[in-house]
Specification:
The protein is of the alpha/beta class. The protein is built from 15 helices and eight strands. The radius of gyration is 19 Å and the shape is globular.
Length: 332
């Protein structure tokens, strides 16, 4: 897969100097003279009957680990650019746009359930890699990654989830927007009543929910997000994939439901790192406690961020990941 970055070659993973990598994270991120890291290029690949746009850090290096990054509801592969860049010296990075999101077209069957997303990512991993991967997931992508790690332990070397959408029957204020979106006909009715929002307004609303109040997006990255939103709104009915995925996500919250996310969490064998944001308006940081309880042996950490710590504090997230990888249980 092609990429706009050139990464250093790592001879042998066992020879990696983890402390030195951690020490150099800030310098690595700031090495672009104040400019944001360019988004990695994407490639359209066929996964069963579904087509995925997959962004990668470059030609696959068998001496490195392999990381797969799964975005959240309304997100895309570009949500992982900074973290992919920081971990690229040691990990081949692959970030798919889920069907109906980013630059991936709608699935033919129009199935946006967590089960369908999970099956798509599983097949992508099976068909693309010979070894278990380091799996990352944010928000809905966290729920999908938990399902994968719990149902297919043979595919997952380690699991890292950032503000995972785990079951919570006392949702936060921001979560009500997701609940409203998941109600059949609501999105269409709002569009009819108020008209379609501009790409600028879509990005503004998203940022109010997923970032802390003090976070300032770089103008160039904001411009890219608006362009992507504009392209998406011109080519697809974005409400379809959002509403379909949101409905399935809400079902996975229900106790006793066969799709309940905790059912899969109980089966996870891979070393797991879970990060929660103390200012998150969508996922209650108090869910760190039941997450630690439901994923045996997991490392659970709270950060002073909102919903997308990998975007707000990529160095901190990368540091915690590398510290965990440095432990023998994560590298065996």
């Amino acid at each position: 897969m092609s990429t706009s970055q050139v990464e250093p070659h790592v001879q042998l993973e066992g020879s990696v100097d983890y402390p030195e990598l951690i020490k150099g994270l800030t310098e690595r991120l700031n090495g672009t003279n104040g400019l944001p890291i360019p988004d990695y290029l994407g490639e359209q690949i066929q996964v069963g009957e579904r087509q995925l746009n997959v962004r990668s850090t470059g030609p696959h290096d068998p001496a490195k680990r392999t990381a797969v990054y799964v975005h959240g509801l309304g997100g895309s592969a570009t949500n992982w650019t900074d973290l992919m860049f920081l971990l690229a010296p040691i990990a081949n990075g692959y970030a798919p746009d889920l069907p109906g999101f980013g630059r991936s077209p709608f699935p033919v069957d129009r199935d946006y359930s967590l089960a369908a997303h999970t099956a798509t990512v599983i097949r992508f991993i099976e068909e693309s890699f010979d070894e278990p991967v380091d799996l990352f997931g944010n928000s809905m992508g966290g729920a999908i990654s938990i399902r994968i790690a719990g149902s297919r332990p043979d595919l997952v070397r380690s699991l890292t989830v950032v503000s995972p959408a785990v079951p919570n029957l006392r949702p936060r204020l921001g979560s009500f927007q997701v609940m409203l979106l998941s109600t059949p006909g609501v999105a269409e009715a709002m569009r009819f009543a108020f008209g379609a929002p501009s790409p600028e307004k879509v990005i503004e609303r998203m940022q109010r929910v997923v970032y802390t109040k003090d976070f300032v997006e770089h103008p160039l990255r904001l411009e890219t997000q608006i362009k992507d939103a504009s392209w998406r709104m011109k080519n697809f009915n974005v409400n379809e994939s959002l509403a379909g995925s949101a409905r399935s996500l809400m079902r996975a919250y229900l106790p006793g439901h066969p799709e309940n996310t905790w059912k899969f969490a109980h089966e996870i064998k891979a070393p797991t790192l879970a990060l929660f944001g103390t200012q998150d308006l969508l996922v209650d940081p108090r869910m760190a406690i039941p997450t630690a309880r439901n994923i045996k042996g997991s490392t659970v950490i709270t950060l002073d961020t909102a919903h997308v710590a990998q975007l707000e504090r990529p160095v901190d997230v990368a540091t915690h990941v590398l510290e965990c990888w440095m432990e023998q249980s994560w590298t065996a």
